[in-house]
Amino acid sequence: MTTSPNERRKPPTIHDVARVAGVSRGTVSRYLNGGHYVSPAARLSVESAIKKTGYVVNRHARSLSTGRSDSVAFLLTEPQEKFFEDPNFNVLLRACTKALAERDITLLLMIAGTPDERRRNLRYITSGHVDGVLLVSSHSGDPVAAELRDAGVPLVACGRPMGIGAPGTKVSYVAADDRDGARDMVRHLLSLGRRRIATVTGPLDTPGGVDRLAGYREVLAEAGIEVDEQLIVTGDYSRASGEAAAAELLARGVEFDAMFVASDLMAQGVMSTLSQAGLRVPEDVAIGGFDDSPAALATQPPLTTIRHPFDRISSEMVRVLLAQISGEDPATVILPTELVRRASA
């Protein structure tokens, strides 16, 4: 026997949740709209009633009443191929997605690696389709952070934003202590008795590239070792740039017995080129990377590196962004790194 449409069970409503929870409809509404002025006991009752009734939020109706979309953009200002090559972006994306899902907020991946992509994404974001932006990999001179800030869009950058305008205009960001991590790695290489330490930097229009190079220079100066500019090569965090950087150092004919490489992916490329040249790691050249990404365990031998706290960065970015969406001022969070010793150095 078939059930007529009129006999079908109607989906539970906010009134059903209030009845089962033993609270007012207003209490349930306040819980659904952020939990402000809801006691812990009432919160537990409402959450239990939602589970019992199977109530599902009508997102469209809530968006109309609150003016929010319950969605956040993960905006990557890099070419699409970098998203697929660099494992760090995927780690950040997964962790941010998880942190937002716990708050019932949707994350939208947006890639703005070209001017056209940037214009389209900025138009979408500033039209109110998302409540805020998690900005990843912003380069100096890239106008995205400044344009979002000037449009009044809640924003948190991954890493210290560079060159975004007038002093006193703050942008929230969460970053690892890149400079201190670089110092730890170079000190470690020196402790092994290495004195001719080369480095492959990250892009020098990014805070990580600038700060990791600064840490390298500072420790050599502290040790009384004059920095040889011939031992410094700039990369772009890709494996190919690591291969090219090592080839360039070999072509220069300068002696080196260690290398601090500003990303694990570049270190993979460096080690491949050195192996092809007949150099052994760590016997001939000790190698230190940065990130402690999956690439660090894929090298032979496994890579000594600096652990970049991506999970904590992601959770802090989400926390700071949601606070800003709720009306709090921009904030800065700097997280410590950690030296991870493996067989390469």
* Separation of the first and last Cα atoms: 74 Å
Please state the CA-atom Rg, rounded to the nearest Å: 25 Å
Largest sheet: 6 strands, parallel
Residues in β-strands, percent: 5-15%
Structural class category:
alpha/beta
Query: What's the order of the H and E elements?
Result: HHHHEHHEHEHEEHEHEHEHEHEHEE
Query: In DSSP terms, counting alpha (H) and pi (I) runs of 4 or more, how many helices?
Result: 14
Unreliable spans are: 1-8
Strand order of the largest sheet: 2-1-3-4-5-11
- Describe the global form: elongated
How many extended strands? 12
Compute the average pLDDT.
Answer: 89
Helix content: 40-55%
Write the layout of secondary structure elements.
Layout: H1 14-21, H2 25-32, H3 40-53, H4 59-66, E1 71-76, H5 80-85, H6 87-101, E2 106-111, H7 115-129, E3 133-136, H8 144-150, E4 155-158, E5 172-176, H9 178-191, E6 197-201, H10 207-222, E7 232-234, H11 239-252, E8 258-261, H12 264-276, E9 286-288, H13 295-298, E10 305-307, H14 310-325, E11 332-335, E12 338-340
Parallel strand pairs: 1-2, 1-3, 3-4, 4-5, 5-11, 6-7, 6-8, 8-9
Antiparallel strand pairs: 10-12
Give the structure's gist in a few sentences.
The protein contains 14 helices and 12 strands. The chain has helices at 14-21, 25-32, 40-53, 59-66, 80-85, 87-101, 115-129, 144-150, 178-191, 207-222, 239-252, 264-276, 295-298, 310-325; strands spanning 71-76, 106-111, 133-136, 155-158, 172-176, 197-201, 232-234, 258-261, 286-288, 305-307, 332-335, 338-340. The strands form 3 sheets. Strands 2-1-3-4-5-11 form a 6-stranded parallel beta sheet, with helices on both faces.
